[in-house]
């Protein structure tokens, strides 16, 4: 291998995120803990599925709901096999993210934050699927009785926010990194 080729390879290896990945694993873990604590709290407080408490009239309630499907209750009424499908997908995505966080460039902080949020949220919902056979949701955004957004949880917010950060990185920052622009 020529000296020039070695010089080109070395910066790539040293710019990987391997040593900082533990920080992003910790961020994911914090999301996971907050998600699980809030689910336990709201399930004990609201007791039965469908129970609801007004928080900000007419736009926000705490409403206990069990999601047997994926986002927006996709495949919720399919007899139970979907629990294993979504749990397996969540585990595979989480494993991929854990490996990928070690390989992304150190300066890809927004991407790393986004992946950490997705990681914590995905594992939070996988835990629910394994423990309860459904995901516990409790945040109900609506407008009076005219419009209702599907009930969601902290893990869902982390996944959506994390994917938003991943998309910001992909659309605005990835090419700058590839071209050496900071």
UniProtKB/TrEMBL annotation:
Membrane topology according to the record: Multi-pass membrane protein
Keywords, ordered alphabetically: Aspartyl protease, Cell membrane, Hydrolase, Lipoprotein, Membrane, Protease, Transmembrane, Transmembrane helix
E.C. designation(s): 3.4.23.36
InterPro entries: Peptidase_A8 (IPR001872)
GO MF term set: aspartic-type endopeptidase activity
The reaction(s) this protein catalyses: Release of signal peptides from bacterial membrane prolipoproteins. Hydrolyzes -Xaa-Yaa-Zaa-|-(S,diacylglyceryl)Cys-, in which Xaa is hydrophobic (preferably Leu), and Yaa (Ala or Ser) and Zaa (Gly or Ala) have small, neutral side chains
Key word NADP present: no
GO-annotated biological processes: proteolysis
PANTHER family (UniProt xref): LIPOPROTEIN SIGNAL PEPTIDASE
Role played: This protein specifically catalyzes the removal of signal peptides from prolipoproteins.
UniProt xrefs under NCBIfam families: lspA
Family: Belongs to the peptidase A8 family.
Protein name: Lipoprotein signal peptidase
């Amino acid at each position: 291998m020529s000296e020039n080729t070695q010089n080109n390879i070395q910066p790539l290896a040293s710019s990987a995120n391997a040593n900082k990945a533990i920080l992003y694993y910790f961020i994911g873990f914090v999301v996971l803990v907050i998600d699980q604590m809030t689910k336990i709290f709201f399930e004990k407080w609201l007791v039965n599925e469908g129970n609801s408490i007004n928080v900000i009239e007419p736009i926000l309630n705490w409403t206990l709901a069990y999601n047997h499907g994926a986002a927006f209750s996709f495949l919720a009424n399919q007899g139970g096999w979907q629990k294993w499908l979504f749990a397996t997908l969540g585990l595979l995505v989480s494993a991929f993210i854990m490996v990928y966080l070690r390989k992304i460039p150190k300066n890809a902080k927004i991407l790393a934050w986004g992946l950490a949020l997705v990681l914590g949220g995905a594992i939070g919902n996988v835990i629910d699927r394994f423990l309860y056979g459904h995901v516990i949701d409790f945040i109900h955004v609506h407008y009076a009785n005219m419009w209702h957004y599907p009930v969601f949880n902290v893990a869902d917010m982390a996944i959506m926010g994390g994917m938003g950060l991943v998309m910001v990185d992909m659309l605005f920052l990835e090419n700058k990194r590839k071209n050496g622009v900071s």
